[in-house]
Amino acid sequence: MDNIAQQYNVPLVRQYDHITSLPNWQSHLSGCFYPDEWLLNIKAQRQAAVLAPLVKTIID
Q1: Is there a domain that residue 53 lies in?
Q2: Is residue 50 part of a domain?
Q3: What is d(CA 18, CA 58) in angstroms, rounded to the nearest whole number?
Q4: What is d(CA 29, CA 56) in angstroms, rounded to the nearest whole number?
């Protein structure tokens, strides 16, 4: 995925490695599948960090 994103110059929100580095991250998955509010907040912050510069470029 990293190679393709780089090849097409597409921003990539890297979530997996960061989330799995958090202590006890599995406890924030409901039924081992859906993230809880805490984990969704972390994901949203990481997405915003990647998307905000794109939105700013469009607005400017």
Answers
A1: yes
A2: yes
A3: 28
A4: 33
14 within 8 A of 46, measured Cβ to Cβ: yes
**CA angle, 52 then 56 then 60, to 5°:** 175
42 inside domain: yes
Judged on CB neighbours under 10 Å (0-12, 13-18, 19+), 46 is middle
Specify the pairing of strand 29-30 against strand 34-35.
Answer: antiparallel
**Could you read off the pLDDT of 25-55 as tens digits, one per residue?**
999 998 878 999 999 999 999 999 999 999 9
pTM of the predicted model over 0.90: no
Query: Does some domain include residue 54?
Result: yes
> In terms of Cα–Cα distance, which of 55, 46, 53 is closest to 15?
46
Q: Which domain holds residue 29?
A: 13-59
